[in-house]
Every structure is written in C-alpha cells, then in structure tokens.
Design a protein that fits this description.
Layout (H helix, E strand, L loop, with lengths): L10 H10 L9 H18 L2 H7 L5 H24 L2
C-alpha cells in the first residue's frame, strides 16, 4: 500500500468480514474482538440518543441478547481478576 492511501471497505464488506472473523484467518483474537466491540460501544454511547435504543435494539436477536447479558454479568469479576494480576 502506498503511503497516504487507505483501503475503504463498503459497509456490507465490513459486516461480512466481522461475521466471518474466526480462528482460521489468522488465529482468533478474542482480545482484539473485545476491543472492536468496545470501540463500537463507545461510538454508540457518544452518538445514540434515547429514542435510538427503542428504534434499533430490535435488530439484536435473542442469541445476541443472551450473549451480551452473559458478557455483562462477568465484567466485574473479569475486571477484578485483571486488576489483581496487574497490581
């Protein structure tokens, strides 16, 4: 890639890439995926207004809801473990 040039992917290409991101290409990076999720959450937090929650939350299905609920439940324990290991 030449200096100063960026590759711009179409929205659909980004969505498909993220959906297929797996252990096959390159080794699956759970930490990297969490940081992508964090960036998305930060963007939503900064740009969502109150009505957006009602308008767009239905795009997440029950499996998404279950996954997010499980992730939210373990955040305090995971954070405490990380802090104890990094003191």
């Amino acid at each position: 890639m030449k200096k100063g040039y960026r590759t711009i992917m179409k929205f659909e290409a980004v969505i498909n890439y993220l959906r297929k991101y797996s252990s096959e290409e390159p080794p699956y990076d759970a930490n990297g995926a969490i940081h992508l999720l964090k960036a998305i959450i930060q963007n939503l937090r900064e740009n969502f207004n109150d009505s957006d929650f009602e308008d767009y939350a239905a795009n997440l299905d029950e499996k998404d809801e279950e996954f997010l609920h499980k992730l939210i439940q373990v955040i305090p324990r995971s954070r405490a473990n990380w802090l104890s290991e990094n003191e």
